[in-house]
Amino acid sequence: MIKLIGEQPTSACVVVVSGIIERAGGSLEEQMEQLRRAHSLAGSEFALSDAFFFYKKGLESIVDDQVTQRFSSEELASWNLLTRTNQNFHYISLRLTIIWGLGVVIRYGVLFPLRITLAVIGLTWLVIGTTLVGILPESRAKSWLSEVVHLTCYRICARGLSATIQYHNKENRPQKGGICVSNHTTPIDVVILANDGCYAMVGQVHGGLMGVIQRSMVRSCPHVWFERSEMKDRHAVTSRLRAHVAAKTKLPILIFPEGTCINNTSVMMFKKGSFEIGGTIHPVAIKYDPRFGDAFWNSSKHNMVSYLLRMMTSWAIVVNVWYLPAMTLQDGEDAVQFANRVKSAIAHQGGLLDLDWDGGLKRGKVKDSFKEEQQKMYSSIIVGHKIMTDRSASLILI
């Protein structure tokens, strides 16, 4: 890997070392202030040496991009006898080769058929059970039966993944009428959380097998499914979710505010929409143990079928789940600040990196507004105040 060093901004050099890039901590303003203090420069003075600071930052991003690496599988300290199954064979020793070969036979010849059987049983029971419960009139008994059906199904499916789940701080479990938000690593996050309690799912209406499952589920439980046209109408989405939360007898809504799967090392920007609904937020941190199986779903590399095949041929899915204390919007706090506070709490509890980047960068480019925000921050350092009203000054770096 590469490390950038040099006390002086004009001596940003690169040397090959083990590990990752050593980055300076703090915001852009804090780093620039420290740099200027070291060179006895006033905040309102422009120095040519500032260009080297941005040159160093740009080189760091090229070598060790903080965003791109969050969408590739987590690196392991030691081999778990899995990765070589799908890659070119590399001979290490006869004994290790024999052990790996036996592992392939066990995982594909014994565990995989059993897991497929359990998954089919679980999904079949979900469709049949929720359809039968949906016939009953609305009552307390129907709600209870619906929860029993859902819990049974998800627990069978979890056995189909050989999931070993440890729940912490169960006294903080999400309550009815609230919103459960969590970091997102894989689609099976839903199965992991629903093993310990029922949730109202939120998502887009699908066709095919997924559509059959969705229609059967909504008959017995008030899940929130949106048509494609509705998903684009932010006001309509917010209104339906707010109405669900207002009904204190309905199951807590389960939302993954990152909007995409991250590789079990970090938590990226939470979309503010989930925090504008109102109500109580119940944060949950999920952390998978990669030694037994890579739970991360790289949707740009694997489709759902190949991903599930990888999951069902892993050794196991070992995961820890932490329920955090409920959080509400504080006085003077907007939705963005609230989202960041919840995200930081989840990252701290799960031992994950807390990143401000938008997970949408997985498939898109950095927005011009974000670039301009960085330009404005540098401009404010030069002119000596925080807010720039002159737009032309915000483009000083161009």
From TrEMBL:
Subcellular location: Endoplasmic reticulum membrane
GO molecular function: glycerol-3-phosphate O-acyltransferase activity
Keyword Acyltransferase attached: yes
Highest taxon, organism lineage: Eukaryota
All copies of domain Phospholipid/glycerol acyltransferase, residue ranges: 178-289
SMART domains named in the record: PlsC (SM00563)
Pathway where it operates: Lipid metabolism; Glycerolipid metabolism; triacylglycerol biosynthesis; Phospholipid metabolism; CDP-diacylglycerol biosynthesis; CDP-diacylglycerol from sn-glycerol 3-phosphate: step 1/3
Entry similarity comment: Belongs to the 1-acyl-sn-glycerol-3-phosphate acyltransferase family.
Protein name (record): Phospholipid/glycerol acyltransferase domain-containing protein
Organism: Echeneis naucrates
